[in-house]
Amino acid sequence: MNVTDSPCGVVLVDDDDGGRRALARMLEASGVHVTEFATATAALAHLAANGTGLLVTDLEMPGMDGGALIAAVQARGLAQRIVLISGRSVDYCAARLHALGVAPIAGIEEKPLSLATIRRLVAG
């Protein structure tokens, strides 16, 4: 099943392979289908074709970062909800998004995320 088959489908973007896989397992344990990407560029191409119920993206990645990805996704209406994850503070992330002119998103979460936080994100 791909993300467009389920309103709870998740596109997950993080350049850290181990962190992305661990987060994907926790999301799947919460009952959602996850499509993973190591780069924002690859995720954006997928989203342009498929959209998603929930985009979860890291902030700092090589090439296109999470902030630029969020701005592009919002401009094109490719996700119902967006959550930014980062090892940086919530205030730092919010300032970065504001500087990019990004509209408010569903949430900003500091890594590492707990299973309880994951379940809350999935539930909306």
Count up the helices.
Answer: 5
What is the N-to-C order of secondary-structure elements (H for helix, E for strand)? EHEHEHEHEH
Q: Ranges with pLDDT <50 over ≥5 residues?
A: 1-7
CATH architecture: 3-Layer(aba) Sandwich
Class computed from helices, strands and strand pairing: alpha/beta
What is the CA-CA span between the terminal residues?
Answer: 21 Å
Rg (CA only): 13 Å
Strand order of the biggest β-sheet: 2-1-3-4-5
CATH superfamily: Response regulator
| Name of the top-level CATH class | Alpha Beta
Shape type:
globular
> What percent of the residues sit in helical stretches (DSSP H or I)?
40-55%
What fraction of residues sit in β-strands?
15-25%
The total domain count is: 1
List keywords for this structure.
about 120 residues, Rossmann fold, 5-stranded parallel sheet, 5 strands
How would you describe the overall organization of this protein?
This protein is an alpha/beta fold and 124 residues long. The chain contains five helices and five strands. The protein has one domain (3-123): Response regulator (Rossmann fold, 3-Layer(aba) Sandwich), CATH 3.40.50.2300. It is 44% helix and 22% strand. It has a five-stranded parallel beta sheet with strand order 2-1-3-4-5, sandwiched between helices. The longest helix has 13 residues, at 17-29. The chain starts with 9 loop residues before the first strand and ends with a helix. The relative contact order is 0.18.
